[in-house]
Write a structure and sequence with these properties.
Layout (H helix, E strand, L loop, with lengths): L2 H11 L3 H13 L3 H13 L7 H13 L3 H8 L20 H28 L2 H31 L2 H21 L12 H22 L4 H14 L3 H11 L5 H15 L1
Length: about 270
């Protein structure tokens, strides 16, 4: 697994779907089967993007064509009942007849599975999702209220613990939004509190990056400040600085320049 894909998975797991989508898109278009599969997941579940099952199926097919096991498992349960002769062309040239036969078999299974999937959605729709979303409305509203209160108290008292708690609740709000955004009456965008939250988190991250910059001659202390900075705001550039610090022969001037770039970006 590449470091970029690993970073994308970390973003996905913490609910930063926008950044995860950007990384998966880049890696999938570069030919990574796992990244293609994760794009399919995001489109299928509406995580960070509008739900689009056709687009999801497209990325599952590409992933399966790349040999990614989880994508192949999606189609492995279905078997064609009639002879289907639709061929899905691989993105790479097929050099042997055995590979050609394997691709045709995958294509047959994909076509049948796609037809069953679409037919099921035409018959049953998203009623189950809408019903479940209705049950989530009280939890959603409570999270919005708690997050707003924590943020205001954190800013007033300069309380880092409460600020991080507000961030945690905000991530849960975004998760509910990504799953049920079309059926839950969205409220967090009506308040400027959440723009304030993002701004405050960036400010705190910048403060700790500045502390790291002041300790550039002491790599261990600088690293501890950067790890704290990441609690507030995730940035690939901070990851790059950490990689520089952890290298065999870290260049202090290079670390300093990289940190200055991070601080400029945050401000």
């Amino acid at each position: 697994m590449s470091s970029k894909l690993q970073y994308g998975n970390e973003c996905f797991n913490r609910g930063d779907y926008k950044r995860a989508f950007e990384i998966y898109s880049k890696e999938a278009n570069a030919g990574d089967g796992e990244a293609a599969f994760m794009l399919g997941q995001m489109y299928e579940k509406g995580l960070g993007v509008d739900m689009n099952r056709s687009e999801a199926m497209k990325w599952y097919v590409i992933s399966a064509g790349k040999g990614y096991d989880k994508a192949k498992q999606i189609f492995s349960k279905g078997k064609p009942e009639t002879g289907v002769h639709t061929k899905i062309e691989s993105q790479e040239s097929v050099k042997t007849s055995n590979n050609n036969q394997a691709i045709v078999k995958i294509a047959v299974v994909v076509v049948v599975a796609a037809l069953v999937f679409v037919l099921g959605k035409m018959l049953f729709g998203d009623s189950e999702k809408e019903s479940y979303a209705t049950d989530k409305i009280p939890e959603y509203r409570q999270l919005v209220e708690e997050c707003s209160q924590l943020l205001n108290t954190a800013i007033k008292d300069d309380d880092i613990e409460k600020l991080l708690s507000a961030k945690s609740k905000y991530n849960k709000i975004k998760l509910l939004d990504s799953k049920y955004g079309q059926t839950i009456p969205l409220e967090y965008n009506k308040s400027g509190n959440f723009d304030k939250l993002n701004k405050t988190l960036k400010q705190k991250c910048a403060e700790y990056c500045e502390k790291a910059l002041a300790q550039v001659n002491d790599p261990k202390r600088a690293k501890s400040y950067l790890l704290m900075a990441q609690n507030f705001y995730q940035s690939e550039k901070i990851d790059n600085v950490l990689s520089l610090i952890e290298s065999d022969k870290p260049s202090k001037s290079e670390i300093k320049n990289a940190l200055q770039q991070v601080i400029t970006e945050l401000k």
